């Protein structure tokens, strides 16, 4: 018996630099187009300055202070909603994608500033 494989196409914007959908799941970005704001029906929320992602749906991202007392830019832990002790495979992939995309856009911005 063969294993069934589900294939989801990844679609990019017209410039090819930004993921616009995963299969039927649309990814919406902020007004400047630099930060994902929604992945399907899951809202992404950032801190007041807009630099750190704080919520992916009902999962809160936590940050710890660095050696100088400043908050680090990278999340250190994920707070799951009550009644959940583990991330599902879908949620794990969602967290990975959002953090990867955030990092990619920051690196792209830094490269533009340097040139």
Helices and strands: which structural class? alpha+beta
Fraction of residues in H or I helices? 10-25%
Alpha carbon gyration radius = 16 Å
Q: What is the end-to-end distance?
A: 55 Å
Q: Which geometry do the CA atoms define? A: globular
N to C succession of SSEs: EEEEEEEEH
Please report the number of helical segments: 1
Return the domain count. Answer: 1
What percentage of the residues does DSSP assign to strands (E)?
25-35%
**Main sheet record:** 8 strands, antiparallel
Tally of DSSP β-strands: 8
Strand order of the largest sheet: 1-2-3-4-5-6-7-8
Average predicted confidence as pLDDT: 82
- Spans of at least 5 consecutive residues with low confidence: none
Task: Describe this structure as you would to a colleague.
By secondary structure, the chain is α+β, with helices and mostly antiparallel strands. The protein has one domain (10-114). Helix content is 23%, strand content 28%. It contains one helix and eight strands. It has one helix spanning 89-114; strands at 10-12, 19-22, 25-29, 36-39, 42-46, 53-56, 59-62, 77-79. An eight-stranded antiparallel β-sheet has the order 1-2-3-4-5-6-7-8, with helices on one face. The radius of gyration is 16 Å and the shape is globular. The chain starts with 9 loop residues before the first strand and ends with a helix. The mean pLDDT is 82.
List the helices and strands and how they pair.
Blueprint: E1 10-12, E2 19-22, E3 25-29, E4 36-39, E5 42-46, E6 53-56, E7 59-62, E8 77-79, H1 89-114
Antiparallel strand pairs: 1-2, 2-3, 3-4, 4-5, 5-6, 6-7, 7-8
């Amino acid at each position: 018996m063969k294993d069934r494989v589900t294939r989801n196409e990844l679609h990019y914007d017209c410039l090819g630099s930004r993921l616009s959908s995963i299969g039927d799941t649309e990814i919406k970005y902020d007004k400047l187009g630099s930060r994902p704001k929604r992945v399907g029906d899951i809202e992404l929320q950032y801190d007041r300055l807009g630099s750190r992602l704080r919520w992916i749906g009902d999962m809160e991202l936590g940050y710890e202070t660095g050696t100088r007392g400043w908050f680090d830019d990278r999340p250190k832990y994920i707070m799951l909603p009550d009644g959940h002790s583990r991330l599902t495979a879908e949620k794990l992939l969602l967290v990975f994608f959002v953090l990867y995309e955030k990092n990619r856009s920051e690196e792209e911005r830094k490269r533009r500033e340097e040139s």
